[in-house]
Sequence to fold (131 residues):
Amino acid sequence: MRDWDFNGQLVKTLRISCFILAFLCAALILRPRDPMVWGFLIGVAAGMWNAFFLGRRLHAIVSLAAPQANARMKGGFAMRLSIVVAVLFFVYRTGWISLLATAAGMIAVPCVFTFGALCVSLNPQAGKTER
Fold:
């Protein structure tokens, strides 16, 4: 059984999310006042931000003892949750950006990560190289 490559999966997720973000930026050129596109773009960007810093935090706590690692993860969760609340509050206060599209964009990044991890776990030959 091989170990799961969390960092590789995170890089793939962020790369796919960058393509989604680029597509949304191109869509903004065609429809600059569309609240759904703006909301999804802001949501995907916030989701990418949270995923990137989750990966950094996990990489930093690998060598810590369990109580310290637990405390650092709780702090990171609180920071990421506050970012989600702050982004949703900002979008709500603007009034013209779609709040539901923003929430969907935030959920899109973890869904891409989960779908990619599922595909790797269902196909055990993925990622192996021939020697």
Q: What stands out?
A: Helices lie at 6-30, 35-61, 66-94, 99-122.
